[in-house]
Amino acid sequence: MKSLIECEPPQLNVPDELVFIISPNGTNGATESDFKKFELTCSGDKPVQWSTNVGSRLIDYQSVHNDSGFYSTIKFTSPSYVLTGYFNCSYIGEEGGDSKSTYIYIDDGRRGFVKYYFRPLTVKVYLGDPMILDCRTSRPDIKVNNIKVNLLNQKQISPLPYKFDPRVGVIVEDLKSFPNQTQIKGIICFNNYSLSDKLTFKPEISLRKPLIENHNGSDYLVGEEIALNCSTYMNEKYKPHFEWTLPNTNAIRVLKEFVNKSLSISTLLIKNASLSDSGQYVCKISALNLFESNVKNIEVKENTAQFVKFTDKNDSTVNKKIVNDGDDFLWDMQFEGYPRNLIYTFYNPYGDLFLHKDKRANVNYIYEEGKLSLSIKKVTAEDFGNYSARLEAPNGSYDENYV
Fold first, then answer.
1. Domain shared by 241 and 275, yes or no
2. Does the pLDDT value for residue 3 go beyond 50?
């Protein structure tokens, strides 16, 4: 057996952080001409690729392969604060594998922030989740030194607690302690680079859409119990309010609620379902003055007699399948039956229930297509003989098939 050749991770020609300060004469750092000579190179034993959160308008890529390995080089056509960001190198086709990255700051003397928006930027966030504002700065020593909040219908500007990382921006962990958080008109970031340097964000706070689940698909029989779970995830500091709307307003319902840290569940139970319980079930959640909902369509049908029947029933003395030693065996059958939770069992030539004992055996049961199949990989002489399949309804009625 050939052993796998392990490759070293890709390598960069620079440390994990670089800071370029551009000035006309290079007094405080580098000139524009010096910066244009800079090359960012990644090398490896296999073809390499770049990924970055920086736009490609001012970037040129070049890849080469020679006797010493694979190389990919980035050259910047012009120094600009917009080039500040991560540059990550990995092997092609191995996303999530070994990689190397560097973060480059570029201060061209124009702005302290990396981004520039002509109008407030909308930031979508779920209630209680951390809010990240892209107030990244063009140098690690440039800080966001003030955050102010404008409220709807109010002129006053309120302070807001936050954390700052020059590579990430402003992180607002939670607005729980902030009054009227859904009435925020804008959040403004200021830095210590320039009094005129500011970015404005407009938070759009919402709730996650709840999920409605049940274990019977969407079909129930008259007299059965309808059980629906409506669930949502939300910061533990908040508690969602659940409200159900049913097609049958006279239905006798039982409601239960369960909370496990950030997961909240409302369970709806309707016993002894009737035809009038068919229709749309709406689960609406609310917190503060925010709302979200989801809909589940349920159909209640008349009770149908349970039955099961193989439509291609065979006699073992007539239905024969020729399989050579070492080949795979496949037995396909068609059936009709009700309800969907039919129970299948298979017996081998020795009269044993063998599915759970033989890892080579596998069963495929597709109720919607009326299909039942048995497969056995790489049969041996000991596998040859008569097999039988039994399909049984919950009331005990059954049918058998042979091969």
1. yes
2. no
Instruction: Give me the pLDDT at residue 262, please.
Output: 93
How many domains does the structure of the chain reveal?
4
Residue 199 and residue 313: Cα distance in Å, rounded? Answer: 74
- The helix (run of H) or strand (run of E) holding residue 36 is helix 32-36
Of residues 349 and 102, more confidence is placed in 102
Task: For 298-346, give the DSSP string.
Answer: EEEE-----EEEETT---TTT------TTS-EEEEEEEEEESS--EEEE
Task: DSSP for 218-237, please give it.
Answer: TEEETTPPEEEEEEEE--TT
Say if residues 190 and 145 touch (Cβ distance below 8 Å).
Answer: yes
pLDDT digits (tens, 9 = 90+) for 263-285: 999 999 998 899 999 999 999 99
Do residues 294 and 312 share a domain? Answer: no
- Non-local (6+) Cβ contacts of 52 within 8 A are 59, 85, 86, 87, 88
d(CA 213, CA 271): 17
Compute the average pLDDT of residues 27-34: 80
Specify whether 144 is located in the same domain as 75. Answer: no
Tell me how crowded residue 374 is: count the other CB atoms within 10 A of its CB: 19
Residues 6+ apart with CB under 8 A from 176: 128, 235, 237, 238
The token duo for 337 is 């039956």
